[in-house]
Amino acid sequence: MTRTLFVIFSGAILLSACHRNRPATGLTVLHPPLQTTEHLLHLSDIADSLSYIKLATDTSNLIGVIDKIIPLKDRILIVDKDITQTIYIFDKSGKFIRKINKKGRGPGEYLSLNDVAVDVSNKRLIVHDDMAQKISIFTYEGEFIEKIRLDFITTSIAYLGNNRLACYCDYINNPNYSIRSKSPNLILFDLQTRKTQSKLFFNSTINRLGITGLINNLSSTYSNDTVHLIMPLNDTVYSICNNKVQPEYYVDLGVTPQMRELQRTASSSKSAQEASQEDSKPQYPVICNMLESDSVVYLFYRHNNKSYYGFYNPRRKTFKEGVRIWEKNTDNRIPVVNDLDKTIPFMPMATDGKNFYYVMESFYFDYFRNSDNPQIANLSKTITANDNPVIVVAHIKNNP
Q1: CA distance to 111, 119, 123, 184, 205, per residue, from 132 (Å)
Q2: What H or E segment, with its residue span, contains residue 186?
Q3: Are 304 and 10 a contacting pair, CB within 8 Å?
Q4: What 3 state SS string does 190-246 have?
Q5: Does the CA dihedral 75-85-388-391 come out positive or negative?
Q6: Exposed, middle or buried by CB within 10 Å (0-12, 13-18, 19+), for 183?
Q7: How far is residue 120 from each of residues 75, 80, 158, 288, 340, measured CA to CA in Å?
């Protein structure tokens, strides 16, 4: 079964970084229209073409579900966090190279595969084990290098270069790092010296019930060492470089006085979930995902029963928005029509700076055996429902 890539966000949190009436100077300000009526974009408006990476399948490399795609220069890493708890390494043609599966309690093993970051320069894989509260480092060949204990809780990680790691805390209170009832939502960790720096503090007395994790809090573009951070109920996208965390994009989501009241209520004795269930107060818009290619910034955001895709062109300083209104028990929530190969919706999970990557499960090809797209028709002849998924690569236009 495919994993649903949508998360329903309820509640609101007042983050200290949001305490402003206008964006800070130097920010790129994005103005999504937040259209109230349905308006669909076409994938051909953004991408020139699609190509496909058929991941090789045999009994030794069956993937349960793809939780994370890490596209590198000459290979692609697939992370299955839950079902097989394995890192799979393929080349860019889909040929299987090796897998790293170190489940266990012994030296060089992990109890859980919570997240994976890549040190491209030194060809190291950095595995976060949240159950054991540690970092394990491996070579690309799967050889164990070292184990590092953590004294804080993190939910996602990204490598920043120079042995520095960005660790997102997802509104979890880390008492050892709290200052005057505020806890950091981001901890920068030096893998060599073990020193930490705390950033982006929030009120640690907040009840986090109802705050749901995002698809991709920390997004890395490995081709240019860029890391971006988004957080639930925050209107700013941050860039992280070395030890500097700077707001890069301010997304004007139209915070009305009513929404500020909802934030205030959620910061009181009520939980975020309880506050969001008050029908008299609207739900705060949420940035769910963000990816930056060489030519366009992609944003996925939600408000009430509407899903939005936004595409910002930095050269033209233009913003395209698609919106879809959806109801319960429906899966049709993507506001971009896939008119390029007319198969599954466009749901990007990663970028390499030029392209966006997403997943097409193998069983879908049964539905498209009579496709008029030659690539899809040929793939359908060679793929069975039990094969590994296919990675779809959307080649983004130079100036969409």
Answers
A1: 6, 22, 24, 21, 26
A2: strand 182-190
A3: no
A4: ECCCCCEEEEEEEECCCCCCCCCCCCCCEEEECCCCEEEECCCCCCEEEEEECCEEE
A5: negative
A6: buried
A7: 11, 20, 12, 27, 33
Q: Are strands 286-292 and 244-251 parallel, antiparallel or unpaired?
A: unpaired
Read off the tokens for 95: 């040929």
Any residues with CB less than 8 A from the CB of 272 and at least 6 apart, and which? 10, 11, 12, 13, 206, 207, 208, 209, 210, 211, 266
Protein fold of 16-396:
Neuraminidase (2.120.10)
* pLDDT of the chain, 400 residues: tens digit per residue: 333 333 323 333 334 333 333 445 568 999 999 999 999 999 999 999 999 999 999 988 999 999 999 999 999 999 999 999 999 999 999 999 999 999 999 889 999 999 999 999 999 999 999 999 999 999 999 999 999 999 999 999 999 999 999 999 998 889 999 988 889 999 999 999 999 999 999 887 766 665 666 778 999 887 777 899 998 778 889 999 878 899 999 998 876 554 454 455 444 444 444 544 443 444 567 889 999 999 999 999 988 889 999 999 999 999 999 999 987 656 678 999 999 999 999 999 999 989 999 999 999 999 998 999 999 999 999 999 999 999 999 999 999 9
Q: Say which DSSP state 316 is in.
A: T
Q: Which secondary-structure segment (H or E) carries 375?
A: helix 374-382
Residue 165's Cβ-count burial label (10 Å; 0-12, 13-18, 19+) is buried
Work out whether strand 318-325 and strand 336-337 pair parallel, antiparallel, or are unpaired. Answer: unpaired
Q: Is 307 helix (H, G, I), strand (E, B) or coil?
A: strand
Return phi, psi of residue 274, to 5°.
-65, -40
Nearest to 118 by CA among 74, 169, 60: 74
Query: What ranges do the domains of the chain cover?
Result: 16-396
- Reported residue count of the chain is 400
